[in-house]
Write a structure and sequence with these properties.
This protein is α/β, with parallel strands linked by helices and 183 residues long. It contains 4 helices and 7 strands. The strands form 2 sheets. It has a 5-stranded mixed sheet, sandwiched between helices. It is elongated.
Length: 183
């Protein structure tokens, strides 16, 4: 046991009654300290890693024989990521867009506003808005950075876009970026 002794030794000479040295048992304090340390370690929440759910296709699945589903041009919004935190979006096909290309920023006043407006337009034109939703194609150019891709994926989550895909850029997309000065 831990003990604290504060007494002196023999002072020689006279014989006196023997006084016991006062002692403090520190065992209970050490036990309490370890209990408190254990309590705080077990009740502390550790920071949880932030991750994003991203559905990827199976590698084993052979889809070369299957024809991809057809989506009308007015239900397709394509976002091409450029440099300097800028992007270009258009509705429809690359060679003959129905609307665009429009230079835009990220965030609530930028691409989010455009996505929400297009979602409302699609809901107004379809019979079953649950089955027929807006399809967003995300194309990251080599001049964009990883943060831009994460930002646009965040916009997909914020706007609750159900159908989106990350696809390769085409020469026409790069020409659009060049025309807007963000290639």
């Amino acid at each position: 046991m831990a003990e604290l002794n504060t007494g002196g030794g023999d002072k020689g000479g006279k014989v006196r009654s023997k006084k016991s040295n006062p002692g403090v048992d520190l065992t209970a304090m050490v036990d309490l300290a370890f209990l408190l340390i254990t309590f705080f370690i077990l009740t502390t929440t550790l920071s949880k890693p932030q991750s994003m759910d991203l559905a990827l296709p199976d590698k084993d699945q052979d889809i070369k024989d299957e024809k991809p589903p057809e989506t009308p041009a007015w239900r397709t919004l394509t976002v091409v990521l450029g440099k300097n935190n800028k992007l270009v979006y258009y509705i429809g096909q690359t060679n003959k867009p129905l609307k665009g290309p429009i230079l835009e920023n990220y965030g609530g006043k930028g691409i989010r506003k455009a996505i929400l407006a297009q979602q409302q337009e699609v809901k107004g034109r379809v019979a079953d808005p649950e089955k027929e939703t807006l399809t967003v194609l995300i194309k990251a150019s080599k001049s964009s950075n990883y943060k831009n891709l994460v930002d646009i994926l965040d916009e997909m989550a914020i706007t609750k876009t159900k159908v989106y895909a990350i696809v390769d850029t085409t020469p026409e997309d790069l020409k659009m970026l060049e025309d807007k000065g963000i290639k």
